[in-house]
Amino acid sequence: MPNKTLVRIDGQQLTLSNLDKVFYPATGFTKGDMLEYYAEVAPAILPHLSARPVTLKRYPGGANDEFFYQKECPAHRPSWLATAKMRRKSSAEATNFCLLEDRPSLLWAVNLAALELHTSLALANDAATPTVVVFDLDPGPGVTILDCAEVALWVRQIFDHYGLQAFPKTSGSKGLQVYIPLNTPTDYTETKTFAHALARFLEKKHPDKVVSNMRKTLRNGKVFIDWSQNNMHKTTVCVYSLRAKDQPQASTPLGWDEVITSRKKGTAEALGFNADQVLQRLKKYGDLFKPVLDLRQKLPEFGS
Fold first, then answer.
1. 219, pLDDT greater than 90
2. C-alpha span between 122 and 134 (Å, rounded)
3. 181 pairs with which residues across the strands?
4. 107: Cβ–Cβ under 8 A, 6 or more apart, which residues?
5. Strand, helix or coil at 280?
6. According to the model, what pLDDT value does residue 37 have?
7. What pairs with residue 134 in β-bridges?
8. pLDDT 10s digits, 126-176
9. Per-residue model confidence as pLDDT tens digits over 76-120
10. Whole-structure pTM over 0.85, yes or no?
11. What is d(CA 8, CA 108) in angstroms, rounded to the nearest whole number?
12. Which of 19, 244, 282, 290 could make an SS bond with 63 (beta carbons 3.0 to 4.6 A apart)?
């Protein structure tokens, strides 16, 4: 039988299991450590999870083992856990997503071995209206996160030209992501079209370094700008979520000065942060991604 521990968190009773199970074999980081990280990072991550449908990426055997995505909120969820039904255009049935609105809900989900938390770009009560545009910069074979940093700076330069703010974060894996908060009326057709046009523009301007085509065979030696993430039925890893890598690294907000400095100095390791470092950064800087929640901006006209 699984090792179970009964705890009370913010007025709710939770049963936590297998706290000593090692989730990151290279470091000995356990499920208990994972729960502790999410408990401590809760004040920062919860505003970014709140009111958004969450897809749980579950790793029952740990970060190096098999995983599965869970969109439908488990039937055995607590009665106090909020959910939201969303329907795909191609399906007659709605998916009942978990909403992680508070610390007990967050830790309940993490206890299911939901090591990674992936969110919609829209709020549950307005599923057709993305609140952000996302550029997911994925390094192909032969390039590194430093090449992604260079592309991120090109993306920023375009938005600077239009007087708009962009916010970078590490994916927690290999690349970087750049978020442009909107929080104004729009739709996925507009945001996806815009993202695709910008990706094609940078591909044309830097054909030796950037690719916008989805074919993986074209990515050697280049950074793929994944514009297709701007889709109602796709999700992106939530800021502060852990990732299933050798180390317990998390998707971490960056200052643009850090991106510039790392690119100039060639220090790729400066763009990777483990759980302890993320918590230290929060104490030092606060939530660098906070403006993404409510900064109101409109997409400009942008031709390809």
1. no
2. 12
3. 132
4. 9, 14, 16, 35, 38, 39, 42
5. helix
6. 98
7. 179
8. 999 999 999 999 999 999 999 999 999 999 999 999 999 999 999 999 999
9. 999 999 999 987 665 668 899 999 999 999 999 999 999 999 999
10. yes
11. 11
12. 244
With a cut of 60, say whether residue 225 has pLDDT above it.
yes
pLDDT at 302 over 80: no
Using DSSP's 3-state secondary structure scheme, residue 251 falls into coil
In the block, tokens 């606060």 appear at: 286
The b-or-e profile of 70-87 (16+ CB within 10 A means b, else e) is bbebeeebeeebbebebe
User: Is 2 in a helix, a strand, or coil?
Assistant: coil
- The C-alpha atoms of residue 278 and residue 262 are separated, in whole angstroms, by 17
H/E/C letters for each residue in 175-215? CEEEEEECCCCCCHHHHHHHHHHHHHHHHHHCCCCEECCCC
The DSSP line for 80-95 is T--EEEEE-TT-SSEE
Rounded to 5 degrees, φ, ψ at 7 are -135, 160
Residue at token pair 């800087």: 285
Place of tokens 């507009």: 190
Report whether 103 contacts 42 (CB < 8 A): yes
C-beta of residue 181 within 8 angstroms of C-beta of residue 131: yes
CA–CA separation, 212 vs 225, rounded Å? 5
CA distances (Å), 137 to each of 22, 34, 108, 129, in order?
31, 26, 31, 23
Q: Listing from the earlier edge strand, what are the strands of the sheet with 223-226?
A: 167-170, 176-181, 132-139, 223-226, 210-211
